[in-house]
Amino acid sequence: MSKNLASFEFIGRILFTTTFLVAIPPKIFKFEKVVDAIVYQGVPQSIAPFLLVSAIICILIGSLFFLIGKARYGSLLLLLFLIPTTLIFHIFPLDSQAFFMNLGLIGALIIFFNNLDNNKSIYNNNILYKLISQAIKFISLEVSKLIKK
User: Fold this and answer.
1) Domain containing 142: what range?
2) Do residues 88 and 78 make contact, with C-beta atoms less than 8 angstroms apart?
């Protein structure tokens, strides 16, 4: 890849990850309010703080992976954040604008997962990749079951 194209791709990575990175400060600085919002959606109070901390970690580390050129890992972590968030907050009641925006982001992350990173062979035998990949498959299966109901 030429230097100009690589720079252009990096700018694209920065722009894409800002969507996720701007979501971190409110989750940290309004932690209790976000936990209350999670509980209001039917998630048990006992696990809501854990889910929020997990979301913050997935967004932060996923975005960093994406920025340093490990888009496959980054995509997986961002999907682990985005799919449950979409299910919990934007389906019941339907928030169509946020729901369809998230569907677009999920689609883009799936494309990034499949097409980015020049050396894909390193993922074939990687345990972390396999575990996260299985988690994504499980979540996708659960989402399809929910949609069919």
Assistant:
1) 3-148
2) no
Torsion 23-137-51-71 (CA) sign:
negative
What's the domain count of the chain? 1
CA distances from 88 to 49, 81, 92, 116 (A): 14, 11, 7, 29
Q: Which two tokens stand for residue 31?
A: 């932690």
Q: What string of pLDDT tens digits covers the 149 residues of the chain?
A: 566 666 778 888 899 999 999 999 999 999 999 999 999 999 999 999 999 999 999 999 999 998 888 888 999 999 999 999 999 999 988 999 999 999 999 999 998 888 755 444 444 556 666 666 677 777 767 666 666 65
